[in-house]
Specification:
The protein is an alpha/beta fold and about 325 residues long. The chain is globular and about 55 Å long. The structure holds uridine-5'-diphosphate.
Length: about 325
């Protein structure tokens, strides 16, 4: 029988990619999304015989009584705005989906004896004072700032996973996902690669915040998705928190120059105020993922960016033709 998998946030960037991947592998996928930041176009054309879409909020208790969720064997809880632009625009919703929503999903996993992957974030480390960041680092998050709604909600989500694992032996695993990209990010997503590539292609200014010396480590979406699937698969990962990210670090200014060069763009690079609490550095230690999952990213930034640029060019051409 086909495995039945629940994905929350199925119309989002990672959720829609994962759904396509699992459907191609023969799974039945039940996808939940309230379409607050996810886009219905992301899940257009999925095979109707094995894909069930539920436009619902994961915070709703009704979800637990819905017969479509009864015999789900695996749960990927991805629902949440993830771009600072979006989570800061809906801070209370962000807190709810990662706390009440996570509790609902854990309850479902417990009742169904299902496995569950919760997607936490590198933001759990805040503006880190330990570099690079291993899972044992407890973080430096500001509770009194614009990023707190996301960072602290994800951290509380982790606490709920810990409680279900220790009190009920729920087979839950936590991924701390670092910056992920591909052309699957909407042009107006607000995150750095979608902004820079869109700007470079359109010949608009490439907007570096601050002086661009802050760093991030970028993982291509296929690598991140493979990491999440291995996390689900491996029993050794039950009750564990594991970093999923690319350990190669770049400054934001270098990224701006690299995107400009690869897109053959004449855009200017301009400098703008650094957002409050913007982490200065970020790079994962991935020894635990290597050991427990046998996972490490394989896609080079240059190759991933070239694909992203090519697909964005195509997408923007279609949008221009329509207008
Ligand atoms: N950033 C930038 N220009 C942009 C968008 C983002 O310089 O147009 C910077 C941002 O200040 C941060 C980094 O790029 O230092 C990554 O930002 P993003 O929003 O992608 O994700 P974050 O890692 O901060 O959650």
């Amino acid at each position: 029988m086909n495995k039945k998998v629940l994905i929350t946030g199925v119309a989002g960037f990672l959720g829609s990619h994962l759904a396509k991947d699992l459907l191609a592998a023969g799974c039945v996928v039940v996808g939940v999304d309230n379409l607050s930041s996810g886009k219905i176009t992301n899940i257009k054309g999925l095979p109707e015989d094995r894909f069930i879409f539920k436009e619902m909020d994961v915070c709703s208790r009704k979800l637990l009584a819905d017969p479509d969720f009864l015999n789900v064997q695996e749960i990927y809880h991805l629902a949440s705005a993830a771009s600072p632009k979006y989570y800061q625009a809906s801070p209370f919703e962000t807190i709810n989906v990662n706390t009440i929503g996570t509790k609902n999903m854990l309850e479902l996993a417990k009742r169904n004896h299902a496995k569950m992957v919760y997607t936490s974030t590198s933001e759990a480390y805040g503006d880190p004072e330990v570099h690079p960041q291993p899972e044992t680092y407890r973080g430096n998050v500001n509770t009194w700032g614009p990023r707190a709604c996301y960072d602290e909600a994800k951290r509380l989500g982790e606490v709920l996973c810990y409680l279900y694992y220790t009190q009920y032996q729920t087979k839950v695993k936590v991924a701390r996902i670092f910056n992920t990209y591909s052309a699957g990010l909407a042009n107006d997503d607000g995150r750095v690669i979608s902004n820079f590539v869109t700007q470079a292609i359109k010949g608009e200014d490439i907007t570096v915040y601050g002086d661009g010396t802050q760093t991030r480590s970028f993982c291509y979406v296929t690598d991140t998705i493979n990491g999440l699937k291995l996390l689900m698969e491996k029993d050794e990962a039950n009750g564990e928190i594991i970093n999923i990210g690319n350990p190669i670090e770049h400054s934001i200014l270098d990224l701006a120059h690299f995107v400009k060069k690869l897109s053959d763009s004449e855009s200017f690079i301009t400098f703008h105020p650094l957002p409050e609490d913007d982490p200065k550095v970020r790079r994962p230690v991935i020894d635990k993922a290597r050991e427990l999952l046998g996972w490490a990213p394989v896609k080079k930034l240059e190759d991933g960016l070239k694909e992203t640029i090519a697909e964005y060019k195509e997408k923007l051409k279609i949008q221009e033709d329509k207008s």
